[in-house]
Amino acid sequence: MVNSVSDSAFEQIYDEYSDKIYSYIFLLVHEKGAAEDLTQDTFIRAYKYMHQFNGESHIFTWLIKISRHIAIDYLRKKNRFLFIPIEHFQFGSQGETPQEIILKGEKIEVLYKAIKKLKLSYQEVIILRKIKEFSIKDTASILNWSENKVKITTSRALASLKKELEKKGERYEEVFSNG
């Protein structure tokens, strides 16, 4: 096997992206140990197939795509799809009062509970586009969808999320803008 990148260059890739890959996987699997293992599996697979990386996308997009496949395989085996709990969000940015922090936490919890009720494709597109802030092009590459499908699915996912939040008596704009 011949890799197209030196070990030291791959180590730099790992150092730069491992925390981001871990964060993405953790959003999907909600288990620290599993996320750590799956992150390691992602980089093992990336190293093994580095010669196939053609540079058409950013290396991070390629790594996310690999990690998505690994996480989805794991979830299929576990037969579930979970989200990060509320305590893993960062709170307390400068100037926030304790009441504002509590309110923000409650809104994020409501948002996550609503997202969890959506079908898998809607959950994924919301995570990638709205939480991880990937571009339409990168999201399409990660999901193996067309850019148009990403746009349509994002729109439908957000509409479903809005309905889910309204069922709970929440205003979509308030909850999502703070989530």
Protein topology:
Elements: H1 7-29, H2 32-48, H3 59-78, H4 98-116, H5 120-131, H6 136-143, H7 147-167, H8 172-178
Helix pairs in contact: 1-2, 1-3, 2-3, 3-6, 4-8, 5-7, 6-7
Q: Radius of gyration, Cα only, in angstroms?
A: 18 Å
CATH class of the largest domain: Mainly Alpha
The low-pLDDT segments are 80-93
Distance between the termini: 45 Å
Helix content: over 70%
Q: How many H/I helices?
A: 8
pLDDT averaged residue by residue: 81
- For the secondary structure, the number of strands is 0
**Derived structural class:** mainly alpha
Proper CATH architecture of the largest domain:
Orthogonal Bundle
Q: What's the SSE pattern? A: HHHHHHHH
Number of domains: 2
Q: Would you identify the CATH H-level superfamily of the largest domain?
A: Winged helix-like DNA-binding domain superfamily/Winged helix DNA-binding domain
The CATH topology name of the largest domain reads: Arc Repressor Mutant, subunit A
Protein name: RNA polymerase sigma factor
Organism: Bacillus mesophilum
Family: Belongs to the sigma-70 factor family. ECF subfamily.
GO molecular function, one term: sigma factor activity
